[in-house]
Every structure is written in structure tokens, then in C-alpha cells.
Amino acid sequence: MIAQAMYEQCDPDGNQYMLLDQLVDHRKKDNAISLTEQTVQRDNGRTYRRKTTAGWQICCRWIDGSTTWENLSDLKESHPIETAEYAVTHKIDHEPAFNWWVKHFLKKRDRIISLVKRRNTRYLKRTHKFGIEVPKTVAEALALDRKNGNTLWADAIAKELKNVRVAFKILPDGQPAPVGHQKIPCHMVFDIKMEDFRRKARLVAGGHKTDAPATITYASVVSRETVRIALTLAALNDLEVKTGDVLNAYITAPITEKVWTILGPEFGEDAGKTAVIVRALYGLKSAGAAFRAHLASCMRDLGYTSCKADPDLWLKPETRPDDGVRYYSYILCYVDDILCIHHDAMKVLDKINKYLPLKPDSVGDPDMYLGAKLRQTQLPNGVWAWALSPSKYVNQAVKNCETHLKDNYDGKYSLPRKAENPFRMDYEPELDDSTPLDSKDASYFQTLIGVMRWMVEIGRIDIATEVSILSSHLAYPREGHLDAALHIMGYLKAKHNSRLVFDPSYPDIDETKFMDCDWKEFYGDVKEAIPHDAPEPLGKDVDLRLMVDSDHAGDKLTRRSRTGFLIFVNNAIVDWVSKKQPTIESSVFGAEFVAMKHGMEKLRGLRYKLRMMGVPVVGPSYIFGDNMSVINNTQRPESVLKKKNNSICYHAIRESVAMGECKTGHIKTEDNLADLLTKVLYGSRRRRLVKDILMDIFD
Fold this sequence. Notes:
Layout: H1 2-9, E1 20-28, H2 35-38, E2 39-41, E3 47-49, E4 56-62, E5 67-71, H3 72-78, H4 80-89, H5 102-107, H6 109-115, E6 128-129, E7 132-133, H7 138-148, H8 152-164, E8 168-170, E9 182-183, E10 186-192, E11 199-205, H9 224-236, E12 240-245, E13 254-262, E14 274-279, H10 287-301, E15 305-307, E16 310-319, E17 326-334, E18 337-342, H11 345-355, E19 368-369, E20 372-378, E21 384-389, H12 391-408, H13 439-457, H14 464-471, H15 479-494, E22 500-503, H16 520-523, E23 544-551, E24 562-569, E25 571-580, H17 588-612, E26 621-625, H18 628-635, H19 647-658, E27 662-666, H20 683-693
Parallel strand pairs: 9-13, 23-26, 26-27
Antiparallel strand pairs: 1-4, 2-3, 4-5, 6-7, 8-14, 10-11, 12-18, 13-14, 15-16, 16-17, 17-18, 19-20, 20-21, 21-22, 22-25, 23-24, 24-25
């Protein structure tokens, strides 16, 4: 599923990271010290033991099936317990790179596991999935078929081989592999698909056996913010939205790596033969980058240009035949998932299908995208808009949570029967002094937070603040924190249904709330930086708004404030933030200025992205805040800053106003939707704000 893929590979900002599956191999380089070299004698005659991990590397298999060689020094910091256990299991714990720390770490493992930040070991040793036994080898798969009296696993293997045979060039008997090629193993991995419990087999190459390619191996994906903007523009310009999924995506791309293998038993009569790998087989280090380059070549052949603000968004100027209106057609790529926005989107997908075969049942109107249900809806004002509903993902997450609690805690933990709000009344996680969780429970707490962070990404803005607060305790969670996370899951169980609508209609902006002043005396003739290489603006223009707020000294332990803001393109929310501020502000004034500067910088980046997408951005962005002192200081040139510690934020926002990039105006606190993202709210106040952001949640 695309949601699972994005969760495993990207953080909320779109940056790629990997989740560890298993440590599978190790190697020692020439610069690794020996046992005799470890003991060194000083000039005074005393000896000491050198403590270094230099020269050692561990091969890591990641959740997505890929493998990489990582330095021992890095794994010692990120996954100390797993690395120590690997060293003991493989009897290398006596080596100089391990003998000075492994025993200590294993002795203190429970305490260390609770304290290590960003522990990403989500791998669990399982033999079953959804109650169905999962094989590890081809022989086990065929044995299970015989045991069950069916051919489900054999059919999955045959289907995979039919698709991947094109990736192998089988050499004649007796012919050696080409000079300069590396030998790697290949093996089958097996899985159960959640949608229909279908058996899935995937042939994976042992890319960890190859040296790192000289060319880049990184492959990016389209950001969620770009997807929200594109859906808003589609409705605004009355364009079609269609999706498609590339069939056996990686196999369609040639590779530059020189590798060969011995075919396994799954190849039947070809088993044991030598074959050169000529396509981007899963597991190869360059496979992702090779497919992206192949896809990019297809996009360029179709006349599309990569957007410089998001390289996985492709745009092309088009003219709508029925009214002659010029606009930009967009193609958004997330690995092999393609979303097309065009006045005749099926025609574009047909052209793509000639380059890259698409799965027949995936082509057409969008259903699930980014892990949420995507469909058009008609608003009360008659406008048609696209909406994301994460209800299915939320329901499945709640179901998985209840199953886990039932199977592992014997009644110790459970979801609350009634949860009107995400948090219990007056609960303050930073002051929680309950018993620290053990390593197993701490890992599950992190898993829950990861799942809920993804819910926030796909539309559950109503739990953003609570999830952000609990995320501050990932390193050392307590029983109360786990109970609070389960309380959020109980709230989601009761209120799973919601829609985030990307309303393209223009907002009613009261210009009287904003002042026009002459700023030249203070900042000179400053002007907004317009990208010189932006494409010609086409289609309808958009209005940008920001609602921003802060909760001064809201953290009772550190007294740090919290920033919260919502960014609108017309009436569509395309970005939101609830984040603890990095500095301690001594006043409400300072906290509000820090929050506004953060929001202003986000708006500046969004204005750049829209211009690089060819969207007309003709006016300033409108920033709404509920602190009158901050608004006066950013509206009136003659205002004097009395607190010099706020001078950076003060001048950054004022200069933005002076250049015409934005305007600031006051909004009543009860009308400021960003209030939901700064503090934990309860009752009718919270309910009113949530209803203004999400549809259907209280129906």
C-alpha cells in the first residue's frame, strides 16, 4: 500500500529514512585493528585499551527489502542492542571493535532501549500474518501448498517469475559470466496482501553483496503538500483527475550495475544456470534510481517538464479545446503510482501505458491515494472539490491496536469505552511520573505514535497537537504516555469518519483589516524575490492565507511555547504545523513573533512552489494572528521594538510586509483555527474548531 510505503520511507517533511529489518552480514576492512594492536603502551609505561569501531561494517536489510553496508560506528549509536546481539550470535564479540562495549550494552539493555532516540527497529520475527503461515523459502512455500491442498504459493511464484524473467539474460551452458561483473544471490520473499489475503511472492536481489554504484542511488517521491495543491488546482480549473499504477515498475528499467547470479530452484529447468541481471531487480542498490530515471525519460518524451520546486511533479502547458483556456497539466509520481491532472486525463494515461505498462484495474478514477480514500464531493455552495478521507486507515489501525492489546497485555491496557477528546481532562504528559515502559512496551508506544503521525499527514488535523506532544516522549516513554496514546486511539475509534476537503472557492478577505504603508524609510526599496526561471503563469490565480497562533510557555516542564498554524490555498488547507518552539520565550509577544516568522517562511516557500508550478500568484499572502501587539508591530512602520531578543523575527516579518510578500491582520481568538494546533482543547470550543476544519467527523 502507498501509505505503508511512505510511512516506511519518509518522515513528515518528505525526507527519506529507512526502518531496520535485520542485520545479515559483516565485513572487516584493512584499517580494522587486531587484538595485539588494541593494547597500547604509553610513555610512562602504563597500558590502555584502544576503543574504536573503525574498519568494520554491517550489512543491513531494510523493511523495503533493500540492503546496504553501514559503518559499525553508526549502528552502535542507532541500534546498539541489535548490533550487540548480532556480534554475540556470530561470535565476533571478542574482536577489538566489539569487546569494549558489547557486554556492557547487553547488561544494561532494558535501560538503553528505553533511552535510545528514534529507535526504528520495527521488525518482528513472525511466522504468520493475518493468521496465515508465511514461508521463508521456495521449498517451504511448496510444502505449505501440499499441506493445505492448494497451489496458492506456487501460483504466486509462477506469476512473479513470468514478470521478472525479462530481467535475466541466461547464458549458454559453459559460458562464464562477463569480466567485470559481480556475483550476487537472489531469493524469494513472501507476503500476504491485506486487501484480499492474496499470496505475494517477490524475487529480490542481494544488493548488499555489490559495491556502491558510482552513480546516485537516491530516488525521491512527490510531497504530500504538492498533492494537496494539485488536487485544489484540479477543482479550481475544472480538470479531470485519474490514476494508474505501473506494472512491475522496476523491471521496466535497465540498470548500470554489472551483476550476475545463479538461478534458483524457482526457475524450474533453468535452475543452476548462469544469468546476467539486465533490469532493475528489487534489492539492487540502484534499482529505485534506475526506475525513476526511466520514468523521467518517459515524462520528457511526452513533453512534460520536471518542476524545480518538486522534481516528482511534471507539468506541461495545455489548451482546453472547448473554451480555449490555457492551463498546466500535471503528472504526480510516487514511485510507480501516477496521478494525472488534465482535461482528458485518460488520453494521457493511454500514452504513458505505451511506454510503461499500467495495471489494467488501476487505471481510472482515483480510489485510495496516500492511504486515504480520494473522491469528489459537492459542497453546500455548489462547488465540486476533492476530499481525502482516512477512515479506512484509521479503522484498520484501531483494529490492529485492539488485537495487539488483547494478545499481549491480558487486560492491563485497553481502549477507553468513551473518549470525547483525544486526551483525558487535564492530562499533562510532560509532568507524568508513572513507571517507565520496558523495551517491548516502549517499542509499541513508538509504533502507535508513528501510525498516528501518518493519520495527521493524511488529514486527521484534529489530533495533531496531542500526537506532537506525545512524540516528545519517544526516547523515554512511561506507562501514562502509553495510556494517553491508547486514549487517542479510543477517540479515533469513536470518531473515525472524517473528510479533509480541498475547497477551491475563493475566500472572503476583509481588506480593511490590513494596512498599506510606506516602508521605504525603514527597509529601502525591497521587493519580493521572483524566480527568474519560473514558467509562464497559466490558469486561475489563487489566494494564500495563514492562520497562526502560539501557546506561551505551554510545556510545564521546559516552559517552551508551541507554534501552530494552518496554510490555505483559497479555502483549501494544504499544510499545517503543531510544533514546540526551539527557544524559551519570556513573553507572549515573543512566542507569537516566533510562530509568525515560522509561518511566514513556510508561506514564502509555498509561493515559490506555486510559481514554479505555473500558478499565478498576483497578490500578497494574508497572515491572521490574534495578538494585537504583534499585528501593530508588523503593520505600522513607526512601531519600535522594545525587546531586542525578538529582533530577528520582528525584522523578518516587517521586511516581508514591506516587500509586499504578505500582509498581517487581526483575527479574534475564537475564530482562529490555529488555536487547535497550539494547545490541548476540550468540549464545545474544540468541537467548533474541528467542525470548521474537517467534515463528517461529528455526524
